[in-house]
Amino acid sequence: MTAIDEAVNTAAEWIQDANALVITAGAGMGVDSGLPDFRGSEGLWEAYPPLAKLGLDFSVMANPRWFQHDPRLAWGFYGHRLELYREHKPHLGYRILHDWCASREHAVFTSNVDGHFAAAGFDPERICEVHGSIHHFQCTRPCCSAIWRADHYRPQIDPETLNESGVLPRCGACDALARPNILMFGDANWVSDRSHEQEQRHERWLHRMHRRQLVVIECGAGTAVPTVRMDGEWIAREHQARLIRINLRDTQVGDGELALPMGAKDALQAIDEAMMRFF
User: Fold this and answer.
1) What is the reported pTM?
2) How far, in Å, CA of 201 to CA of 26, rounded?
3) In sequence order, which ranges of 209-250 are alpha helices (DSSP H)?
4) What domains appear along the chain, each with residue ranges and CATH number?
């Protein structure tokens, strides 16, 4: 039996014994659904050739200043991402997690803005999207705190320039230009009300779980933006929870924690198969 096989079996045992689960997820969770990997320039430029011509990487492009200086390019980038996340379906790993959570107390904490946990059937009241959601918009004016769903927006993107060629989304409250309700780099104007409410609900739930047999299942959360890793590690420390870290690259763990150097979908499938064999 390999070290990975042993880790998979241990993870299956931990989850089987748990009566509460916290699912934490970063960008690596979405890769198996066919979503681009924006860690580094190559994935971004493969998905968006016009940005390669301009030499723009993700940290430069994912900045609110574009909505002031070049709103059609800004909405071309985010409008295309919105359609991408609408079109791609959550991979099998989401269903596996949903099945495990069906008979247990559970919560989801994610930095992903793709909305795939809700699309996979998770109760939105149990999801904390700490960096916001691309399926919600906000106003670009600092004095306006409106947040609304993006359901009626249908992007019209010029593939040669990545510009939005249609009508740009506007705020229904004040008619200013809209933007996604996402925390961007260098973002002083993100309206965090929706995410803050989710975080408060998440914290209240954790407080109620203090004496439960709690397991954190971390999927694809890297170290570049460590929000998700830090939350899972804090839960493991403060609630004496077990932590299962699923990550192809960043597999460092502390004492009493478990690392699986695998992609999210493959690891979740392997654990699920182990659970069916042994329990």
Assistant:
1) 0.95
2) 20
3) 227-238
4) 3-278 (3.40.50.1220)
Q: What angle do CA 117, 202, 144 make, to 5 degrees?
A: 85
pLDDT digits (tens, 9 = 90+) for 136-152: 999 999 999 999 999 99
Amino acid letter, 140: T
Give the integer Cα–Cα distance in Å for 78 and 60. 13
- The two tokens of residue 27 are 């960008």
Q: How distant, in Å, are the alpha carbons of 3, 112, 171, 198, 229 from that of 217?
A: 19, 15, 38, 19, 11
| Residues, the chain | 279
Tokens found for residue 148: 């609304």
Q: Are 29 and 247 in contact (CB under 8 A)?
A: no
Strands 242-246 and 214-219: parallel
Neighbours of 36 (CB within 10 A): 19
